Amino acid sequence: MTKVGDELTWKDLEIGSIITEPGNADQNQTGDWRTQRPTYDHARCIKCGLCSIFCPEGCIGPTPEGFFEANLFYCKGCGICARECWTKAITMVEEEEE
Amino acid sequence: MAKRIGIEVSRSVAIAAKLANVDVVSAYPITPQTHIVEDIAELVANGELEASFIPVESEHSAMSACLGASAVGARTFTATASQGLELMHEVLYVASGMRLPIVMAVANRALSAPISIWGDHSDVMSARDTGWIQIFAANGQETFDNVLCAFRIAEDRRVLLPVMVHLDGFHLTHVIEPIYIPEADEVARFLPPHEYPLPLDPARPVSMGAFGPPYIYSEAKKAQQVNMLASKEVVLQGWREFAGVFGRSYEPLECYRCQGAKVLLLAMGSFSETAMSAVDVVREEGREVGLIKLRLWRPFPFDEIRRAVEGAEVLIVLDRALSFGGPGGPVCSEIRSCLYGRDKRPKVVGFVGGLGGRDISLGGFVEIIKRGTEIARKGSDQEFEMFGVRE
Description:
The complex is a heterodimer of chains A (98) and B (391).
Chain A: E1 36-40, H1 50-54, E2 60-62, E3 68-70, H2 80-84, E4 90-94
Antiparallel strand pairs in A: 1-4, 2-3
Chain B: E1 3-8, H1 9-19, E2 24-27, H2 34-45, E3 52-55, H3 59-71, E4 76-80, H4 82-87, H5 89-97, E5 103-108, H6 122-125, E6 133-136, H7 140-155, E7 163-168, E8 176-181, H8 184-190, H9 214-246, E9 253-256, E10 263-268, H10 271-284, E11 289-294, E12 296-298, H11 302-308, E13 314-319, H12 330-340, E14 347-352, H13 362-378, E15 385-386
Parallel strand pairs in B: 2-3, 2-4, 4-5, 5-7, 6-7, 10-11, 10-13, 13-14, 14-15
Antiparallel strand pairs in B: 1-8, 6-12, 9-11
Helix pairs in contact in B: 1-2, 1-7, 3-5, 7-9, 8-9, 10-13
C-alpha cells in the first residue's frame, strides 16, 4: 500500500478495514493530540536514557550526539519523561509556545 | 427430489443449516429460538452434521465466537431472539464492520419489561442500524428458503456481510407447516463452498478489527455503506438463482391484489399472511384494496416501495414495534421518509399493533383497513394509532 494515513480514500481500504501489512501501526500519528511537548537542556543531560525506559509510547531514542529525545510524530506529551528525569534536563512546554 | 413434509418451522431452520453444511454454530438457547439450536446440537451430536457446535454462556459470547469462526473462513450460523439479540448487540456491529458473512435466524420476540416471551418486532428494530442485511419471512417455506439464500448472499465476494433472517416468534417458530425440503445435491448446486478472501491464516497474517482513528473511521463507514447498498443487486440475484434451482422466487416486497388499489396495506412478517385474507374480504365488499408484504428490510428497497405505491391514495402501515415518543412504528417512519420527497404520494397512516404476542385476526385487519382509510380522509392529530388497546 503506497498511500498512508489521511491519503487513503474509502476505496483504498481492504474489506472490513483488514490490515494486510504487518507493523503498519507505525504510520499512525499519535502525536497529533499532544498539548505539551518536551524540551531538552543538553547541559544537564547525562545520556542515561532513563526517559526512554519510562516513555509509555516507546518513542524516545538517542540522537547521533547521544542525547535522548522524543519523536514528536508519536509523542503524546504525557510528561512522564520530564517527571522521571533525575537531572531535570527535560521541561514540558505548551505546544503554542515557541 | 424435494419432499414436502409437515414440520415445525424452527426444525426446518435447523435442517436448512445442515443442508448448507455449516462449519460452526455457536448459540445460547432462548425462547422462542430454542428448537432451532436444540435441533442443530442434536444433528451435530448424532454425527449427521459435521460441524463444531460451541455452547456458550451468553449471546454476547455466541456472537463473539461466531466472529472468530467466520474470520477463519468457516461457514457460520447462529440463532437468537429478544433479550438475546439485545445482549449480542454491540457484537452485531463488529460482525458487519469486519465484513463477516455470519447468518443468523432471529425468532422475533418482544422485549422486557414487562417480561414477554411472545412475538413482535421490538428486538429487531433495535438492531436495525447494525449493518446486517435483514430479510423478513412471512411463512415457513420463506423462512427455510431464505436461510439457504442468506448464506449465498452473505458469502458472495461482492457482499461479505452478515445476514439476519427474521421469523416471528411462535407465529412461525412453533407452527407446523408443509415445507419443501430439498436434497443435499440440489442445495449444493445453489450454494457453492464458502471461501473467505482474507481469512485469519498463519501463512498469510492479517489484523482484523484494528483501531480506526478519526482520519480513517469515516472512510471505513463510507465503504460499509457503499457495500451495503451494492449488496441489494446480489440479494436479487441470489433470489433469482434460487428460483432457477428450486422454482420459488422472492422479491424485496410482494404485492398482493395491488392492481388498481386506492388503499394499500403494508405489513412485515407472518402477519402479512392474515392481512392477505383481510384484503380478500374487503375486495369482496367492492373496495379497491391491496397489500404490500415487505420482505427486504435492509438494504431498504426504496425504488420498489415507490413503484408499488404509485396510484394509491392511502397507504396503511402496520408496525409490531413502537418508538416511544417518536414518529410511530419504525417501518412506517421509514416508509414516510422514502416517500416524502415525491410529488405524488399516498397519505401514510400508521398503526402499531400485535405487540408481545397480541394477535391481529382477519377481522382486525379489516378494521385496520377501514379505520386507516377514515383517518386518511378526516385527518388525525396523532402520529399513529395503537391498534387493539383497551381504553
